[in-house]
Design goal:
Elements lengths: L12 E5 L6 H10 L5 E7 L2 E9 L3 E6 L18 E9 L2 H10 L4 E6 L3 E5 L7 E5 L4 E8 L3 H13 L4 E8 L5 E6 L5 E6 L26 E3 L7 E3 L10
Parallel strand pairs: 1-4, 5-8, 6-13, 9-12
Antiparallel strand pairs: 2-3, 3-4, 5-9, 6-7, 7-8, 10-11, 10-14, 11-12
């Protein structure tokens, strides 16, 4: 995750890793074959020597890389200490074409949706790494950091309280993705989620997520969730209307 000073808060680019054995020149050829122009850029991210960059929907730059020099893990001193940046959610005015782009160009797979206006996509075992909500604006909806376990999630609430940061939503267990989560607002106003115990699809060939005791469906397959019919929270308060707008 890279933060830069700007005139306004916005999501400018996302960076995704392809297989480490894939050459960026091959990435460029595939993109060119489907009519997408890309450029090779260097020095954009710490630990990544080069990326293949191209324009995505909603004025978003997409960077693809193959190898990263990971820094050795270091114990944090205070604060929440997330495991990783788990996912990014964006608002879009063209949700159908946006979803089609990420599925056909980058190979993301459908995980779940609420009706036709909130869509979760995955590119690995995690239930989602990107999600999109249809709306009247484009830009960042929320970013989410994965924590080690439910104990760390409660500890994160204590950290927020110690800094007089109000909880916007949660703690609760989501229906979609079934993760435990809590949301707060960053100084710029956008939402930040802490989560743990996200659904996993370890074996894509099965077509369903790894069984968990809190699943309502057996097996739990990707589906379209219906407002007023499906519970959007297994327990805890349901998402506030502002979250779904």
């Amino acid at each position: 995750m890279t933060i830069q000073q700007g005139q306004r808060s916005r999501l400018r680019r996302i960076c995704c890793q392809v297989d480490s054995n894939t050459e960026l020149s091959d990435v460029a050829r595939v993109l060119d074959s489907i009519g997408i122009s890309s450029t090779r850029e260097t020095g954009s991210y710490p630990g990544i020597s080069a990326v293949q960059s191209f324009a995505g929907p909603d004025d978003l730059s997409i960077d693809l890389f193959n190898v990263v020099a990971n820094q050795p893990p270091r114990a944090g001193k205070g604060g929440v200490n997330p495991l990783k940046l788990g996912h990014v959610a964006s608002c879009t005015q063209s949700i159908d074409s946006t979803i089609s782009f990420y599925k056909t160009v980058l190979g993301f797979r459908f995980s779940d949706s609420i009706e036709d206006f909130f869509v979760w996509l995955r590119c690995c075992a995690d239930h989602h790494t990107l999600n999109f909500i249809a709306g009247k604006r484009t830009g960042l909806h929320h970013i989410a950091f994965e924590l080690l376990d439910r104990t760390r999630l409660l500890d994160a609430c204590e950290v927020l309280g110690s800094h007089d940061i109000d909880i916007f939503f949660g703690p609760a267990r989501a229906g979609v993705g079934h993760n435990l989560h809590v949301y707060h607002r960053a100084p710029d106003g956008y939402l930040v989620e802490f989560f743990t115990e996200l659904d996993q699809m370890s074996d894509e060939s099965t077509g369903y997520f790894d069984p968990r005791p809190w699943h309502r469906d057996s097996p739990q397959r990707p589906k379209v969730w219906k407002l007023g019919k499906d519970r959007l929270s297994v327990w805890g308060m349901p998402p506030p209307p502002e979250f779904l707008e």
